[in-house]
């Protein structure tokens, strides 16, 4: 088995990607066909799950391959994975279905994301700031090379002022974070008249709405612009807007993306330790329009439905709903356990200040523990009793929004700039 494969070597070359993004659509599809043939041949040989894949002669032959669902992955994890390849385990969120996948360690380089970074008009940066979730505990850290600001602590004016003053002093060349916390911090920036200078801001993981963009752009002095990245833990960075800030350009050299009745299907041409071929990640979206920026990579319209929101605690503070995601999505991986393994999806519901109901939907046919004490105790390590009264409810289905999209947080308690 040759590894990295010829296609991987090519598509991990930044200089190559900076040329191929200007190729014609026909040339890019020919390149995708090369990658598709390679990974299908590999998967047929090394993954029992894929032993009956059809021969690929044309790019449209991808449609002959059955769709891979999250439940298929859960039931066939060992038949898809190629353990001889160095890898890391990732678990997706629970907006629709939680599932564990393996990722090829060579992808940790995220060469495609480096291409996106060239679109910012700068060669690189030395000072980074991160408004992000902290898996092993929320701790504010200020080092010469980066500033780490946990979203879990951004629940009051005092913390917002602390973050803003640190950013004002640090003047990060690159600042990235979840969309809603970025908008939250920007709201406080406008309210306190503290406007930190930033070279670039990149919003990730949540839907960046037009109102959030307006708030962020008015709250920070941004030299090179606010960019929107669409990615996931199971697939990586799939698409990003260019300086035109319209639809999101996809990484065609890494992904074949299909939209079937609004359902997005991904074929990852780079992950050989865990081939994801026609994988339905349960995001709802559609292919976008061509862009006149000169880059010919196909586009996606911004993904709708990914917003975490904040919850109102007993102390009348806004607390990021991310604190519920931490134990459910990360505990089993970090502690090699299966306490949350039976949960397919979940929703955090709040109707009253200080009270939260956690709706848990089990996988079909999965045994639900009769005693949820251990699970609740783990959750309470992250969600303090003095902040919330927590109830857990086992349900057969998770309610959807008016648009038909399943949402992770259902709350009527929204701050003005979230509405």
Task: Describe what is shown at a glance.
The protein contains eleven helices and 22 strands.
Task: Map the helices and strands.
Layout: H1 6-11, H2 14-20, H3 25-46, H4 70-75, H5 77-80, E1 87-91, E2 100-104, H6 111-118, E3 128-132, E4 141-142, E5 146-150, H7 157-170, E6 174-178, H8 179-192, E7 197-198, E8 200-204, H9 210-219, E9 221-222, E10 226-232, E11 236-240, E12 248-250, E13 255-260, E14 263-268, E15 279-284, E16 299-300, E17 310-312, E18 318-320, H10 322-335, E19 343-352, E20 355-362, H11 373-382, E21 389-394, E22 409-411
Parallel strand pairs: 3-5, 3-6, 6-8, 7-9, 8-10, 19-22, 20-21
Antiparallel strand pairs: 1-2, 4-5, 10-11, 11-12, 12-16, 13-14, 14-15, 17-18, 19-20
Helix pairs in contact: 7-8, 8-9, 10-11
Question: Which features would summarize this protein structure in a list?
Answer:
alpha/beta, GMP Synthetase, Chain A, domain 3, 419 residues, 4-stranded mixed sheet, 3 domains, Rossmann fold, 9-stranded mixed sheet, 27% helix
Question: What features would you describe in this structure?
Answer:
It is globular and about 60 Å long. Helix 10 packs across helix 11 (373-382). The protein is built from 11 helices and 22 strands. The chain is α/β, with parallel strands linked by helices and 419 residues long. It has a 9-stranded mixed sheet, with helices on both faces. It has a 4-stranded mixed sheet with strand order 21-20-19-22, with no helix packed on it. It has a 3-stranded antiparallel sheet with strand order 13-14-15, with no helix packed on it. The model has no long low-confidence stretch (mean pLDDT 86).
């Amino acid at each position: 088995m040759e590894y990295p494969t010829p296609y991987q070597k090519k598509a991990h070359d930044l200089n190559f990607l900076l040329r191929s993004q200007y190729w014609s659509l026909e040339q890019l599809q020919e390149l995708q066909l090369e990658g598709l043939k390679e990974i299908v041949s590999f998967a047929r040989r090394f993954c029992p799950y894929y032993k009956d894949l059809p021969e690929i002669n044309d790019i449209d032959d991808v449609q002959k391959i059955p769709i891979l669902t999250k439940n298929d992955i859960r039931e066939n994890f060992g038949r898809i994975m190629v353990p001889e390849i160095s890898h890391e385990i990732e678990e997706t969120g629970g907006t629709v279905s939680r599932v564990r996948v393996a990722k090829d360690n060579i992808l940790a380089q995220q060469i495609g994301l480096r291409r996106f970074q060239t679109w910012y008009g700068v060669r690189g940066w030395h000072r980074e700031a991160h408004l992000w979730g902290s898996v092993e505990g929320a701790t504010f850290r200020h080092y010469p090379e980066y500033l780490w600001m946990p979203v879990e602590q951004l629940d009051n004016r005092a913390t917002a002022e602390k973050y803003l003053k640190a950013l004002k002093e640090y003047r990060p060349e690159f600042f990235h974070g979840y969309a809603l916390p970025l908008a939250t911090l920007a709201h406080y920036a406008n309210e306190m008249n503290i406007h930190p200078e930033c070279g670039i801001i990149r919003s990730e993981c949540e839907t960046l709405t037009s109102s959030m963009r307006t708030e962020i752009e008015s709250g920070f002095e941004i030299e090179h612009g606010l960019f929107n990245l669409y990615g996931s833990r199971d697939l990586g960075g799939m698409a990003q807007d260019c300086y035109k800030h319209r639809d999101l350009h996809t990484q065609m050299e890494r992904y074949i993306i299909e939209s079937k009745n609004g359902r997005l299907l991904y074929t990852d041409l780079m992950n050989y330790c865990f081939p994801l071929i026609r994988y339905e990640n349960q995001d709802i979206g559609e292919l976008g329009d061509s862009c006149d920026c000169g880059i010919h990579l196909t586009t996606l319209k911004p993904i709708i439905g990914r917003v975490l929101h904040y919850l109102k605690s007993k102390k009348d503070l806004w607390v990021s709903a991310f604190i519920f995601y931490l134990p459910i999505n990360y505990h089993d991986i970090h502690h090699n356990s299966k306490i949350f393994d039976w949960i397919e999806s979940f929703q955090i519901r709040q109707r009253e200040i200080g009270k939260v109901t956690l709706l848990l939907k089990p996988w079909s046919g999965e045994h639900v523990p009769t005693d949820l004490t251990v699970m609740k105790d783990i959750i309470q390590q992250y969600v303090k009793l003095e902040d919330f009264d927590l109830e857990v409810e086992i349900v057969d289905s998770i309610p959807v929004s008016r648009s038909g999209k399943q949402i992770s947080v259902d709350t009527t308690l929204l701050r003005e700039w979230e509405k």
